[in-house]
Amino acid sequence: MDEVKVVVAHSERATLRVGDVFLKVDADQARIDVEVEAMALAPVPTPEILWREPPVLAIAAVPGTVLGRLGEPSTASPAVWAAAGAAVRKLHDAPLPPRPGGAGRALDELTEELDRECELLVASGALPADLVTRNRQVAQAALRPWTPVFTHGDLQIAHVFLDGDEVTGIIDWSEAGRGDALYDLATLTLGHEEHLDDVIAGYGTDVDRDVIRAWWSLRSLLAVRWLIEHGFDPSAPGCEVDVLRARM
């Protein structure tokens, strides 16, 4: 029998790998509904769905290797990063999906959440007040109207698989929906600012880099306490706290 590997596990969901099969166990079936729907609509390679029996979704492993991981140097070439950017552009050019995603929340809701989180970060001592204040200022540039596109919503570099410079699969679509294109580009390059120009070259059109930097700050501010509470370390080298420090 193949070894059972725990890919990720916390109070909301867990993902197990058995050979070439991933079993995603999620307490919120609405997230799985979004994921299944998005993978069916996305014009980019996605995992094959093998079966679904709530609360479990079984998907096949995608071929290739990940673009990189947060907190680790990426060995991928500029051409590979550009290929990832081109795949993102293909997704953003697709017809809009039927529902908003994680990157598509109303501006007033997002602003309220960010301000509340900043207060909690300082009050709890999770981050220094000056670091929070500076990044809240930077994050303001992301809080503007945008034209919604089909976004992945959680486009971390570890969710993008390639073989050579060909994208072979993009995984984890539970936050997909209508959202801000620059949020996807920011998530893809979080902690890997040196590859932003390569991604934009593949994306095929110039973008507002200040807004991407704003999303780096905003996403990191919102993530720090959640990561700590779920057993992750946002202060590890190259991760969210370092992303915030880079804005100082």
Q: Secondary structure elements and their pairing?
A:
Elements: E1 4-9, E2 13-18, E3 21-26, H1 29-41, E4 49-53, E5 56-60, E6 65-66, H2 78-92, H3 107-124, H4 129-139, E7 149-151, E8 160-163, E9 166-170, E10 177-179, H5 181-189, H6 196-203, H7 209-229, H8 240-245
Antiparallel strand pairs: 1-2, 2-3, 3-5, 4-5, 6-8, 7-10, 8-9
What does this structure look like?
One of its GO terms (molecular function) is transferase activity. Its EC number is 2.7.-.-. It comes from Streptomyces lanatus. Keywords: Transferase. The chain has 8 helices and 10 strands. The strands form 3 sheets. It has a 5-stranded antiparallel beta sheet. A 3-stranded antiparallel beta sheet has the order 6-8-9, with helices on one face. The radius of gyration is 18 Å and the shape is globular. The protein has helices at 29-41, 78-92, 107-124, 129-139, 181-189, 196-203, 209-229, 240-245, and strands spanning 4-9, 13-18, 21-26, 49-53, 56-60, 65-66, 149-151, 160-163, 166-170, 177-179. The chain is 41% helix and 18% strand. It is α+β, with helices and mostly antiparallel strands and 248 residues long. Helix 3 (107-124) packs across helix 7. The chain has a single domain, classed as Aminoglycoside phosphotransferase (APH), C-terminal lobe (Aminoglycoside 3'-phosphotransferase, Chain: A, domain 2, Alpha-Beta Complex), CATH 3.90.1200.10.
